[in-house]
Structures are given as C-alpha cells and as structure tokens.
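Forum > Structural Biology > Help requests

Title: Can anyone predict the 3D structure of Putative spermidine/putrescine transport system permease protein?

Hi all, first post here. I have the sequence for Putative spermidine/putrescine transport system permease protein but no way to get a structure on my laptop. I'd be grateful if someone could post the structure tokens.
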Amino acid sequence: MESALERLWRTLVWAFVIFFVVNVLAMIATVVINSFGTRWLSSWLPAAFTLRWYASAWKEFQLGDVLLVTFQIAGAVVLLSALIGVPAAYALARRDFPGKPLVIVLFLLPLLVPPITFGIPLATVLYKVGLAGTMWGVIVANLVPTVPFTVILMIPFIEQIDPKVEAAARVFGAGTGRLFIHVLVPLLVPGILAATLLAMVRTVSMFELTFLTAGPSSQTLVVALYYSVFAAGVRAGQSIDAMAVIYMLSTLIWLIVALRFVNPTQIVARVKKAAV
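Reply #1:
Sure, ran it for you. Structure tokens for Putative spermidine/putrescine transport system permease protein below:
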C-alpha cells in the first residue's frame, strides 16, 4: 500500500511538472502571438494580426545572410563531426586498449561541463592564433563538444552490428577501407543521420561558444537574436519575437526529424554505462 507521504510526494512532483510545462508553453505562446500582433496592451489577444513583423525582421536583422551563415557553420560542423566521430566511435566500440575508460570520460567531459567553463580559454587560444572572429573559428569551437557528442551517440549503433558481419567481409577479401565504406556505413545510416541531425541542432542552438568566437560576419541565428535584444537602439518587440519564432522553428524541425531516427534512452544508457 502506498503511504500518505508517498502520495503527497508524487502529487507535489506532478504539480511542479505541470506548473513548469504550463509556464514554458505560456511563454512560447506569448512570443508566437506577439510576433503576429499589431498592438497588444491590456487585452487577452492583440487587436489585430499581421505578417509584416516577419518581413520587417527579415529586412532589419538581415536574416537571409544570418541563416546562410548559420547553416554554413552547422553544415561544416556536422560534416567534420561525422568524419571524425564515426571512425572514433568504431574504434571505441570494437577495440579494447589500456586507458579506454579514461578516453570515454574525456569524451564525456565537454558534454557534462558547461560550455562557458571551457569556452573562455578556448576563445583565448583562438584569438591568439587568429581564428576567432572568423567562420572557421566558430566551426572549431563548436567541434569541441560536437565531436564527442557524435562519438557517444554512434557507439550504441556500432555495438548493435554483429562482429561476424565484419569477419565475413574480411574472409571475402575486404580491407579496412572497403569494409567501413561498403559494409558498415550502409548499416549505420540511421545512426549517422541521427548523429548529424542532432549535431546540427546542437550547433544551431549553441550560444556560449559561438558568442565568444564569432565576429560580425560569422554570427549564427542565436547570437544575432541576442544582439537584436540587447544592442543599442529602439526595435519593435514584435520583430524580435518574429526572429525568435524563426529560431525556434529552425531548431524544432531538425530535432523532430532527428528523433525519428534515434531513441534518447540510447544516449542515456551509454552515458550511464561509461560512467560505471
């Protein structure tokens, strides 16, 4: 029988979760509605609705250029993360070597430590070598957490492949390169798609590292949104909200597509296993 204390605790937990979710949904709804509203003062809804704030935000904040830079950076980060992360994940999944647990812990550190913790010294190094303020500086900074993220995500997919498949390919004369390209990669397509899509979401939404290393011509959408809110001058709140809605949609779409290919419990299970 469930005790009164347990029932009270469960009720409090559910009340807190519901309160949190309602507040988050209310904030999102407020931003979305305001981005379409003409004037919103003391009423429950704006006096009228319009799309002109999206056109205004697109022109005022040069969203076309910002989105182009955002997806150029995200695309480069995703490509490099896949090229580095998939072979590294294969090595960790298939090979046992001294210090392997330590290597896995090192891969986990950029995911567990707040980005601002290592972002400041990383930005300092990038400024010294002349990469900070450029698109390549932003790409390098975002690779620091994204490559380990790709590795940790790909390991469970590789472990699901029977090693006998690889052994059979080697019996028929396949070298390491052909084995990887013609046998493993086709089997890993769902995992690679999930890793790349989630890496793109992570890069598009990464504020700290991009903010510390970006220049005027290498700002992603999230950094441009920050500057639009806090930069000097007067701007219509509806235009800023319209920009925020575009940012939310750009990340939400990729996230939904990525979750089509991966179960988040795979990542949690792998992190717990590695920690043990």
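The radius of gyration is 23 Å. DSSP finds 13 helices and no strands in the chain.
Shout if anything looks off.
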